[in-house]
């Protein structure tokens, strides 16, 4: 891959850095299987980035349309920093807390659903 302009570098950063930050933080709190296949890891980064941008889409729209920080480059840079780094970190911490406190089971129960455990027996869970 060849980076000719600073815009190329920004595009790569904007597609992978939020997912990388999310994945790096979530791995500190939730045990995940290590994927040796780079494609799956990149897909996880892109999925986390897409979720991040979905949550931040109103802010991104206001920023790009010029409704906020039209003349303040520092304000624009700070907002992009929040979108690219702070929001993925907060999302990862919330996700980790939900997983550690079995919050997803409570959510499923509140919705009247039962989740299926992918590990069939307790012994397989202990030795996995």
Number of domains: 1
Mean pLDDT: 86
Please give the alpha-carbon distance between the first and last residues.
Answer: 38 Å
Number of strands: 0
Number of helices: 5
**Overall geometric form:** globular
What quaternary form is this? single chain
Based on helices, strands and strand pairing, what is the structural class?
Answer: mainly alpha
Describe the main β-sheet briefly: none
Q: Which spans have pLDDT < 50 for at least 5 consecutive residues?
A: none
List keywords for this structure.
128 residues, mainly alpha, globular
Please explain how this structure is put together.
This protein is mostly helical and 128 residues long. The protein has one domain (6-102). It has five helices and no strands. Helix 1 (6-29) packs across helix 2 and helix 1 (6-29) packs parallel to helix 3 (73-100). The longest helix is centred in the middle third of the chain and has 28 residues, at 38-65. The mean pLDDT is 86.
